[in-house]
Amino acid sequence: MGIEADVLAKIRPSAEEDARLADVIRDLTAKVEATLEANGWPAKPLLVGSVAKGTHLTGTEIDLFVAFPPELPRKDLEERGLALGELLERGVHMYAEHPFTRGWYRGFEVEIVPCYRIVDAKARMSAVDRTPLHADYVIGRLQEGQAEEIRLLKAWAEGVGAYGAEAKVQGFSGYLCELLVLKHGTFRRVLEASLAWRRGETIELDVPAGRMFEDPLVVIDPIDAGRNVASAVSVERLAGFVHAAREYLRAPSDRYFFPRALRPRSVAKLRSEASRHRLGLLAIAVRAPAVTEDVLYPQLRKAHRAFADLFARHGFLAHDTRFDVAGKEAVFLFAFTVDRLPRVVRHEGPPVWVKNAKEFLDKWSRSPKAVGRPFIAGERWAVDVVREATEPARLVKAMRRELSLGKDLDRSARRSFRVLSGSRAVPAAYAEAWTRLFDKRFPWER
């Protein structure tokens, strides 16, 4: 057997698993139908997602949508959808465009999602209304053997760190993987085609784009020409996908599908590496708010940009930086080329002959922050000014309240905000996060 055949044998659900899955779906669907009938709710449960299409991997979850008539008010749709979610064990209310329930049923993870029943994407009333149409589209176009090719692409994308449209990953969704295989035919042909992708690549199936998109990768939704299926894919995730495809085609290995887990380096090794490269370390820690990952991660990115911009504006050059979640904390890690700047910074003003030059002179001649009087440097006025902070830790402590980190993180930072510098920035709790910053190997190289 070749590598891909061996991989399929591991990722394809067994006949026993599929039989148990089918039995659970029948049982759950019957209970949903009974609940709908008992309440007099005219709606229909629809199996969607990879299970409905036969492209699921072993250990999959069940996506059960419940389609209500379009005339039902949104408030009633939401209430009835959550009421149906009570059929699940350990159910948790999740919030996207409208609430749904994620929980467990007889050993399988399940999502029960209310939607409106439509036959044309143009009639959609919420984003999830298209999902049953996606299932119909894929089922109607799958050729013999392509379900296996989709399974390979999904498992490969997950192994190289590119699978998942959620905010944490910013990668390739299951539906996107399915469309790519429908477009190119096989797993390998998708990888081969990706070698020609560049930022802004646009891929169409049955319909042309209904509008312009500016995303790094554009794949037109064949049932809604105004939607980009690949809108979640970041430019870094796109670049990583292309590089992994090139490397896999050059030397195929099951390590792309089943990479070794990252092994955190010891605190001593991390501190030693920073010392060897003469890097100044800083860790900013905020207690992670109790929100979903799709709410949390955009705020983490916003906060990370705010911290990075603050340091850059004040002259602190970051050699490397990242954010992560360590236990119950959101952590923002910085490795600076220097961890202390001179007490004085030169502030450049306007050319001597412009009209507002006098305003510059008046301001800085009287300022207590100025070190001496303004002077001419070339054709411009200049003045030496005392820095607000000579160390990044002092700067971020002084300026934190002026930064916008995101609604939930701002609230959390008011109660829990720590700044650790030097060796203290590398406690054991952050070892894995620091390892991710220093270890630049790709997953299949570990």
Question: So how many helices?
Answer: 15
Widest beta sheet: strand line-up: 1-2-5-4-3
| Structural class category | alpha+beta
The CATH superfamily name of the largest domain is: Poly(A) polymerase predicted RNA binding domain
Provide a descriptive summary of the structure in words.
There is one protein chain. The strands form 4 sheets. Strands 1-2-5-4-3 form a 5-stranded mixed sheet, sandwiched between helices. It has a 4-stranded antiparallel sheet with strand order 10-11-9-15, sandwiched between helices. A 3-stranded mixed sheet has the order 6-7-8, with no helix packed on it. It is of the alpha+beta class. The chain folds into 4 domains: about 5-120, Beta Polymerase, domain 2, CATH 3.30.460; about 140-255, Poly(a)-polymerase, middle domain; about 265-340 and about 390-440, 2-Layer Sandwich (Alpha-Beta Plaits), CATH 3.30.70.590; about 345-385, Alpha-Beta Plaits (2-Layer Sandwich). Helices cover about 40% and strands about 20% of the residues. It is elongated. Helix 6 (about 145-160) packs across helix 7 and helix 7 (about 175-185) packs across helix 8. A hairpin with a 2-residue loop joins strand 7 and strand 8.
